[in-house]
């Protein structure tokens, strides 16, 4: 048995004849003619980002993700911005493979350039009072991204990401939805990817249990809840870090800050812990 | 016309003007010269390279009262920071713009950064020139003016996720000036030059005469600013229209500035208020001229 998939589960030679090794590497009796090789795709993420968390509030959405790109368990890159502004109505938060995130980011950039050819303006400082009916809302962006993700997984060549699309839709109401490497999509007033789905969602749901509570949540309370989630995630997720990015998207546009720091961590209690049971000093 | 093109009457009946890419005995491609004739019938288009940006302007003849005002835009954006205005066969212009957009996008695909205006002009010049090489295609029936602002500030590499090393990318010379406003004009032959001010279309003679009066050459003192450029562009289009006064026209104007300028580095339509102010001044200037003549 070796690591080459073609060696797994071989049918019996005495019944089915010898396996044609032509496409194998020359070390395994193949001819290594590239045109005869089967199509293969990268099937595992390398450099990765962890959770993205987001919550809707009365006027818009708050979204956050830390600035770490891990290389396995190594905290390799510590200034990686995983929230990407699309236009003044939408931000995308990326978890998962960072090279695929860069690819999607470039895809979004070319999409925005082409959207502008139609006459819409996504200039960062345009005020929202301008006629912006033709500007893509976060819902349009989410539809686009989910189609890209689903196409790629259907080609057996997925983009290894979990995305949250946050912003306001074409009717200027808060919009939050997710899309992942399988092309699965769903929407909820609070969303989180990766570890966040296990640790942040329960906290956010105490603030916004269902859609009817969104209109009661102020921007300040929403930001506070998201900051609390980032802290819990840093306490308990070994692939997270305390520097993070946070964005607020509402009718006024996008406020994106990329150098937030966790505050008010509680570690004083650690002094009182001794050993694992019987130890007292 | 400034260039010394001879009238092509001599070519008729000789057989050297029937097919594109054929050299006449004195080394001319008559089909390209005929394409230039198509340009000379188009509405006047001008481009002005100002100190802090570029202005593009176009005289759009209103052929029918049934056409909606301020619709059917003809000046196109390429990438975010460049504009194309053309005179001649409108569909040829649209094809030109479409190709320019593809070139800009493919440049980004390779270099992960916006295409410099000079590179775009070069590629589009080569593309137009290719349509003079074969008898199975006809030359472009347009002259295009390409204006853009290359970023002076360091631009992010597309898709970059981190801040990267503190040193400049690719090893930069401190204080070296990069970017700025650029203006090119591409003719049906594929010929293109960089210009301080460019004009094409029916009223190009009058427009060029006006452009030459402006301070556009940085080696000869202070070059005019962008807002002044807008007002001059409007005035020049109005002045160039004097010869075909009987026809109504609409003025279309766009501009592009540096990141810290009024358009924030993007190619955009000139705001309505500023355009209307420029048109008011242009009309006033024309009336002033009439008074002097009387």
From TrEMBL, chain A:
GO terms for cellular component: cytoplasm; nucleus; proteasome core complex, beta-subunit complex. Keywords: Cytoplasm, Nucleus, Proteasome. Residues 19-42 are annotated as: Disordered. InterPro entries: Ntn_hydrolases_N, Proteasome_beta4, Proteasome_bsu_CS, Proteasome_sua/b, Proteasome_suB-type. It comes from the Eukaryota. It is found in: Cytoplasm; Nucleus. Pfam families: Proteasome. GO terms for biological process: proteolysis involved in protein catabolic process. This is Proteasome subunit beta. It comes from Hortaea werneckii (Black yeast).
UniProtKB/TrEMBL annotation, chain B:
It comes from the Eukaryota. One of its GO terms (biological process) is ubiquitin-dependent protein catabolic process. Residues 16-38 form the Proteasome alpha-type subunits domain. InterPro entries: Ntn_hydrolases_N, Proteasome_alpha, Proteasome_alpha-type, Proteasome_asu_N, Proteasome_sua/b. One of its GO terms (cellular component) is cytoplasm. SMART domains: Proteasome_A_N. It holds the Pfam family Proteasome. It is found in: Cytoplasm; Nucleus. CDD domains: proteasome_alpha_type_3. Keywords: Cytoplasm, Nucleus, Proteasome. SUPFAM superfamilies: N-terminal nucleophile aminohydrolases (Ntn hydrolases) (SSF56235). The 26S proteasome consists of a 20S proteasome core and two 19S regulatory subunits. Belongs to the peptidase T1A family. PANTHER family: PROTEASOME SUBUNIT ALPHA/BETA. This is Proteasome subunit alpha type.
